[in-house]
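Working notes for the structural subgroup meeting. M.R. asked for a predicted model of this chain before we commit to crystallization trials. I am recording the input and output together here so anyone reviewing the notebook later can reproduce the run.

Input as submitted:
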Amino acid sequence: MSVSGLRCPSVQACELVLQVAELQKLDTSVHERIRCPSVLACELVLQVAELQKLDTSVREQITLSIQLAEKLVNGRISKQQYIDGDVAIRAKRDELCQKMDVILASL
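Returned structure, recorded in token form:
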């Protein structure tokens, strides 16, 4: 990604740009009025990377839920074990979705 001549090829590079921006001692009145476009772009890159990570985790939870259902159908676990496992998986998935919603609302 290239923004204002600054390249952010990875999430790590963008994290470094944000750290440098925080370390720079800018006049607070100037800092309140404008923000460096490269810093904004890097913040977006980091948020999108976090969304992708959360999305992967949600997909893993869905896979676990499917595997649990298959075990129930095949008779390898009892109905109560399925219910207990599904409740835990669903709670984790809901938590991940809430985190994703917070990030999406901030974009």
